[in-house]
Amino acid sequence: MSASLDELKTIKWILVGILLVFTVFFIFASVVLKGVLGAIRDMRELRKSEGFRILGEQYLDKGQISELMAEAKDVLKTHPNHAYANYYLAMAYYRKERWVDAQKIFETLRDNKPEWGDAVDPYIAETREKISNGKPKLVR
Fold first, then answer.
1. CATH number of the domain to which 92 belongs
2. On the chain, which terminus has fewer CB atoms closer than 10 Å, C or N?
3. H or E segment at 136?
4. Domain that holds residue 8
5. CA 27 to CA 119: how far, in whole Å?
6. Tens digit of each residue's pLDDT (9 = 90 or more) over 5-51
């Protein structure tokens, strides 16, 4: 009887060990999968950002400012922190001489993404100067 009880205890501990191994494996697999999925999402966002950068440059080069504003606003509805959409919306406002609107977006972009400082700081300085030297154009 005690041999059977010892065998049952051994089987119990083997099952506990197997359960522990599977638990550790699934935790590890979920962490790895989360990282892989995050990397894929980051790659997709990078592709979207690069695509919008190209589109934004094309609109600016062709002087299609209203179209650029519409595209940027559309992207910002679902991705409010999209750096390129914010940048090109600010550039559109800048081209339309809407200094206050451009300055606000440039400053927000710089505050949220400090790495954009070199790109937007000259525009911030220029919009401040334009606002202080004349009547700024406001959004209606």
1. 1.25.40.10
2. C
3. none
4. 2-133
5. 42
6. 888 888 889 999 999 999 998 898 888 878 777 766 655 665 566 78
